[in-house]
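The following block was generated as part of the benchmark described in Methods. Ligand: flavin-adenine dinucleotide.
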Amino acid sequence: MTEQADVIVVGAGLAGLVATYEMAKAGKKVLVVDQESSANLGGQAFWSLGGLFLVDSPEQRRLGIKDSYELAIQDWMGTAAFDREREDQWPRLWAQAYVEFAAGEKRQYLHDLGLRLMPNVGWAERGRGSALGQGNSVPRFHITWGTGPGVVEVFLTRVVAASKRGLVTFQHRHQVDEIVVTDGAATGVRGTVLEPSTEARGVKSSRTAVGEFEFSAQAVVVTSGGIGGNPELVKKNWPARLGKAPENMLAGVPAHVDGRMLEITENAGGNIVNRDRMWHYTEGIQNWDPIWPNHGIRIIPGPSSMWFDGNGTRLPSPNFPGFDTMGTLEHIVNSGHHHTWFVLDQKIIEKEFALSGSEQNPDITGRDFKLLAERLKKGAPGPVEAFKQHGADFVVRDNLRDLVDGMNALTPDAPLKYEDLEREIVARDREVKNSYTKDFQVMAIRNARNLLADKITRVVSPHELLDPKNGPLIAVRLHLLTRKTLGGLETNLDSQVIRPDGTPFEGLYAAGEVAGFGGGGVHGYSALEGTFLGGCIFSGRAAGRALAR
Ligand SMILES: Cc1cc2nc3c(=O)[nH]c(=O)nc-3n(C[C@H](O)[C@H](O)[C@H](O)COP(=O)(O)OP(=O)(O)OC[C@H]3O[C@@H](n4cnc5c(N)ncnc54)[C@H](O)[C@@H]3O)c2cc1C
């Protein structure tokens, strides 16, 4: 069969675009195949907040943050907790290489392409409470000016330019069902042509077949994303250590994140490792204006909201908002109910609630200074206020008794006792009266406020929740929300897929989420945040550069 291109890329998300950009730059002919329409170019990254993990950046230094490769690798390894001999062999090497990239050329590589960052640096995953353990010792979450679409743009514009020069061809609505292997090497893909779709970006599209296709090339790069949009696969791969798989989770990703290519690549002879490692959020809320089925949004919380399980028991230390996603997930899944509650007040929501997603941050996404300046005004940011008004999970009341009644109206099967909540909140309110305390969450709030950027933009001073001048009181019912796949196709540092016997698969490469962002699990059991887009860039670049050699 004649070759349609030098290389076929399966998936036009961020990892696929980066690999394509690198290959086209070197003069290679690339065929990009995607099951969705051109409206979805950029995949999940378009919806993202564009948060990027960087180490010892000029933005950090300007804020007085002292970071280093040594501190970052200590945090990464403490968080990943690699403990598998064979399965973590490549992930360990990827982790070292990736942290070096984040502490070295990553920022310049992106800056040279035109990507710009917000001056403030966020502190995600504040940690489980020990220097060698999980979490970021310092803020490292750099938001792209333009959010996710801004990250996609710098690669997509160059790939589109290359397509005008005849180097890149797109085949949309082409769903790959099989990788063609000839004499042990990947030489093409076969699949189903889907009917045209006029659905808007992110909306679930039809799977009606109108034909078949086969394309051949010298190599295939799989960049098809993870499994977060496929609830059955999430349940099937759910790790026993996290308890029983929840029956219902909100979907934090579009339906095209279906995970099919994992099995397809495995059937072709690629090895999957760390299948049971995944990353889901514990602060999901139902989107009142959904785009994809069961669409949930993640609250990116500051540290001050009180957090209760479905029985009304305060979550134990250090499961505070924004501290330890996987530890909190494990606690919640084993607590009996899969929903939890934030209890806060107007003062906290105004400063501490951010929503993940490009469409939830129109000021930064649209690079709109005027809209951005409105964040300084009194009141919560517009999208947060919209959730407060229209969101099915929000209860807003002037006093605690009414608040608990409102909460119980939302979860009649798991009624809370007013006395339980009152006891916890009154006790916590007593702890804020001194500048020191025995309450670890109040300590953590004071610690965060030692960082000037947090103090000014992100973390309110400890105050009494039950003081009406800080009200009204707000309760938010939180759901578990699927997002990222941490395990995947095993790859070497060139992003070349590894076979079960440990040898490289000729002509077959994988990058981005399908490869566990590199190696089949660069994050180990848990992530430091902002590491996923960067993982797509790093592993996509490795594949592209290897194939350009
Ligand atoms: C709301 C949201 C916020 C996020 N925020 C951040 C953040 O701030 N920082 C961060 O680091 N990460 C963030 N992420 C995660 C990050 O965006 C994703 O992990 C990353 O973009 C995945 O990129 P990918 O290229 O690997 O896969 P995808 O973006 O999933 O792209 C895969 C593509 O492959 C196609 N495909 C799949 N199977 C087939 C097939 N069989 N045949 C043909 N085509 C196929 C799909 O249609 C899709 O276009 C966020 C994600 C979401 C959804």
